[in-house]
Sequence to fold (323 residues):
Amino acid sequence: MRADRVFAYGAAAGLLGDLLLGDPRRGHPVAAFGRAAAAVERTLWRDHRGWGALHTAVCVGGATGLAALASRSVRTSPTASISLTAAATWAVVGGTSLGREARAVGGALAAGDLGVARERLPHLCGRDPQALDADGVARAVVESVAENTSDAVVGALVWGAVAGVPGLVAFRAVNTLDAMVGHKSPRHRRYGWASARLDDLAGWPGARLTAVLAAAAGPDPRGALRAWRADAHRHPSPNAGPVEASFAGALGVRLGGTLSYGGRVEHRPVLGGTGRAVQVHDIERAVRLSRRVGWLALGVSAVARVLLSRTGRVLSTRKGRTA
Fold:
């Protein structure tokens, strides 16, 4: 069976598995990678970019190498190849858990229980929940749903289309490392530099595809494109900017503004400035948009995989004729 069909069938099965099962509460492969990466950090840590780059190379290279070996070992069996792709897709995407956590916070806010909403918010993002009122929590949830739609679903599918199972695993490894060491804490400002920059590069195509699909699938396509064009470049993150701006415009809300991370206050630009303030019911709207974007991304990635395979066959045929 051709590689493009293996990816299409396997990725669809993996995304369906995520929809039906979500993430396991114990023994998640990404959690296992995180523990291994933390162990490597304990061994290598120095307050130096070079040592951080080595940490990134060891962790991402090791995970990708294991994935490549696994793919190679099953390449002669279509059934095993599809199963491996499905398992890898299920392991690296997290759309269902993302929606579940967002809805849990939204449910607490709808019930008027700000305390519970604040307790649940760290499952979605690293902001200081005690510094947020109900509107601030709702806004944080919508922003997290938008950004993680790219990080937890679309980006992985894009790299899966490019490189199969190794691409899926490599993207999740890069994204996980960025979450672990890519922030600007005193310990990781230099050590996590390489992980943060690599995550920016790896996330670039998925973020743009997410923004396009949010505009296409949202209730206000023109608003999404307008907000993306006007506001995305003002966001400090090159990838979160397009995604959050497109979601803001599609949903007709304002995102961005003042927030706090680890006691550090940031004043971010407003995205979707013509929209209204985020309300609790917008959380459900964002989750639904995120799910539509994820399934559309599967279709786009499958088509892209077909085109890449055809291009490869054409180039191989031409090379054979000229040899």
Observations:
- The radius of gyration is 20 Å.
- The longest strand covers residues 258-261.
